[in-house]
Every structure is written in structure tokens, then in C-alpha cells.
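Quick illustration, no need to memorize.
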Amino acid sequence: MRNVSGWAAHHQGSALKPWDFTRRDLLADDVAVRVDYCGVCASDIAAIRHGTIYPLVPGHEMTGEITAVGSAVTRFKAGDKVAVGNIIDSCGTCPPCLAGRENWCRRFPTLTYGNTDPKDGLPTRGGYCSEYVLPAKFTYHLPEGLDPAGAAPLMCAGITTYAPMKRWGVGPGKTVGVVGMGGLGHIALQLAHALGAEVVQFTRTLDKVDEAHALGADDVVLSTDDQQMAAQAGRFDFILDTVGAPHSIEPYMSALAMDGTLCVVGIPESAIEVKALSLIQGAKNLAGAGSGGTAETQDMLDFCATHGITAEIEIMRPDQINEALERLARNDVRYRFVLDMSAQRP
């Protein structure tokens, strides 16, 4: 077994504390990754509050360096810069897995933390730690020139927004709306702009207007202004809703053009409600998406490297994690916290 140091919640809702634990010895197809940076995601808060496996080590947005490889691994060698996301394995045999969409594995993919790994029977522990061990298949080359700290959140927020935009054909000649300008939304905005679409940022706050334009928005709409919202009717081919707080989607359904699609990637605690006529009139579509498969995740990283896209981040030391989680819970970050895990090394 491999000795690892990390930060864990020991029961539901508890503060995170330093915790030493072990990971499995490398299987033939495994790699060991020294974690350099790990993003802090809103889903980490939900897991700490409502998880079922404790101690819980959160974190599923990692960048780092390969330190060892299993005997069958050929894609990586020690010293390679890599990234790890929120899925670390899948069954590999069901139709979604065979189609390269392992995030929809029918067995359910093995998540980076808070699961039991079928390969070894151990609880999965996340990236708020010194080292991670996982199959090479779910490890990604970090492109040269992509800042490893700013790239860490791409492994969740980046792929979660990139995959649906690619699937629904976002590109030149399309008008795209991004609802919300937080951890997901500010990356979605950059991606849609780089894909060549006309991009409109929906936001509740005027103080984000200049930032939205700087990140690539062609237009900014204040979603709390009824007149501005009414003026959007029939404008959009695709709208990506990144908001995780309860809100009405009806105004955005009205903003869709004929055959337009509204895709939900944020996860509000309350149910989403939509009137039947909002779908029927104009033959509109309501869809959802989450994470991505192995091929599209590497494609996303390569695309971001080509276009210079990373998250806007605030770097914190590991011993500041509880402060970061508390601030994130009250939305006091622009736009992602990233832990510098090297700060805890001897």
C-alpha cells in the first residue's frame, strides 16, 4: 500500500482536517500521480454535507505529475504532466463505454471520491491529497503551455460545459446564451467564444458586465430586467444553463429560436419545472449533460491549450481549505478556488 497525506471530513458537515491514509499498490494498468493542484468544486460542499462514506477526502479536479506507472502502461512515463477529473474508471463493456462516453456507464462510473472502487473494494479518496492512483485510461496528458493551476478546474467545469456545446453544434453562425457566470459559466463563456459562436452572457449582477465582455461575451443581458429578457425572444440556437441555485427556466425557453435547445448542467436542489407549451411552441428541446468521456476530455484540454483557456482562479494553501469552502458556499469567489497541494510537502 502507498502512504498518502490529505484533508478529510470525518462525518457529515464537519470541517476538513489533515488525515493520513493509504492507496493501493499499482495494478498493471495504473499510474500514480503526484497532485500539484486541485480545484474546489461546489459539489465538494454537497458531498461533505450529504455523503455516505467517511472519512471523505474531496477533490476531483487535479493536475500533477506521473511518479510511477504499472507494468502494462505505455501512454505515460514518470515525469509526464497530467490531469485527472471526476471519473476514474468504468465497466468498459456497456454501450456508453464502448461509444467513448464512459461518464454514462450503465454500471455507473467509478467517481474520484465518495465511491467504492470495484477493482480493490476500497473507498475512493479525492484530490485534496499528496498522491492519486488510478487507471491510465482515465488519466489525461496536460498540454504544454496550459497553466496547471488554472487548468485544474477544466477537469470538471471545463468538460461539463465543453461536451454539450460540441454535441449540439456550437460554432460559427450559432447564437449561444450562457446562464450564470460562476465557476461553470465563466469557462462556458470562453469556450463558446473560442468555438466561434455569437455569445451572450446572462447575469443577475451589473458588476460582471465588464468581466463578461473581457472573457468573450458579445452581449450581456441582465436576467433580472424584464424588458431586457423580453427582448431576447426567439434569439438563441442554444442556451447552456450553469446555475446551481433554484430559478425559473421559462424566460430562457422563450429566448430559444425554433428547434433551439436549452441544456441544463447546473444542479439546483429543487425540481426544474417547464410548461408543456414552452416546449411545443417552436419545437424546442430541454436537455441535460454532465462531465464527459475520455476522448472528449482530452479533446477539451487540447482545445483549451490552443485557445489559451483556463479558469479564473484564486490559489489557496491546503490549510485554507475550510476558508475556501465557506467562501464558496456564499459565492465569494471569482471564479474558482484551487489548492496548491505542493504547499503541504516537506
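The chain has two domains: 2-153+313-344, 157-288.
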